[in-house]
Write a structure and sequence with these properties.
3 helices, globular, Thiol Ester Dehydrase, Chain A, 147 residues, alpha+beta, 21% helix
């Protein structure tokens, strides 16, 4: 079996979808599960619960922000060669409506543009009926391995 540094981003993301590799620990803090992946696109399911509430009892905006940062970043990662990394340098989020508690939502991340040093992606957070809760665009810096 290849080491993690020998896997392409797509191979690593597919391994997470298939259960070969565990979801990163943020997937426990914010309950997320990777459902499908292809080059430049990933789909997660995420569900807010009582751990994600703000002082007024609604789901904190950080829930949607974290989910959208995750899918835009993972969509970016799915396009990378082995040992190439990335980091989010800009994340813009529009909250369209309050995120419901205890309702599975679908988050989709898609790469819009890719260059040697930057990847721009977008993410959506919707319910099963297609109702939009939040939208994001992200810019990720590509980190080449040291020679």
């Amino acid at each position: 079996m290849k080491s993690l540094k020998e896997l392409t981003g797509l191979e690593l993301m597919q391994g997470i979808v298939d259960g070969v590799f565990p979801m990163p620990s943020i997937g426990i803090t914010i309950p997320m599960k990777a459902l499908e992946v292809e080059n430049g696109r990933i789909v997660f399911e995420a569900t807010a619960d009582d751990r994600h509430l703000n002082p007024l009892g609604g789901v904190h905006g950080g829930f949607a922000a974290t989910v959208l940062d995750s899918v835009t970043g993972c969509a970016t990662h799915s396009t990378l060669a082995p040992a190439v990394g990335y980091g989010t340098v800009d994340l813009n989020i529009k909250m369209v409506r309050p995120v419901p508690k205890n309702t599975p939502l679908i988050a989709v991340g898609k790469v819009l543009n890719s260059s040697r040093s930057l990847v721009i992606s977008e993410g959506t957070l919707k319910d099963a009926a297609g109702k939009l809760y939040a939208h994001a665009t992200a810019t990720c810096m590509i980190i080449q391995p040291k020679q």
